Amino acid sequence: MRIKPFPSELIRPDHFLLNQDSLVRQQMLEMWADLSDLKHESELLKRLVLRYADAEKRIRNLHEQLRDELVAAAAIQQTLLPGNLPESTVMEAAWKFQPCDEVGGDIVGLQALDDTRWGCYVLDVAGHGPRAAMITVSVAQYLKPSSGVDLFSPKKVLDALEKEFPFSRFGSFFTIIYGVVDL
Q1: For the residues 19-42, what does the mean pLDDT come to?
Q2: Residue closest to 16 by CA, chosen among 3, 26, 25
Q3: Interatomic CA distance for residues 122 and 140, integer angstroms
């Protein structure tokens, strides 16, 4: 195999290859390689193969690390869901939370506002994954009684959310249904 000359004014092929998908990488190697004579440029080929193997190993390690982080984020997101509700003869509530990915942009909330009223909402942030999940966490925290928002008035809640979370803040939007149940 003989490596064909690569124009020196361009980036070196061994650096360039690491940034390409496998099909492009294969096509580029085929362009530079001539199977008739392997002995002249075998060192460059060895370096390319070693760098490629090293890059794949680093990518695998990063993928495993990212997967672990997503599993941890999913566990944290589960803690935002309502806990066990007090028994009531007047109201019953149930929900099932199952995001498409490890974490997602959907959540349900149900919380006591006082002795007889409960605030409840279903929130859906556009998109999937960590970005949508982080926006969900932000909005869910904003809907806590300690936030200072008048949670007794659905109109005031929606007005406050619109002001606090404009599209320009995250480059994303969400849909929410918010209501107050008076027992």
Answers
A1: 60
A2: 25
A3: 10
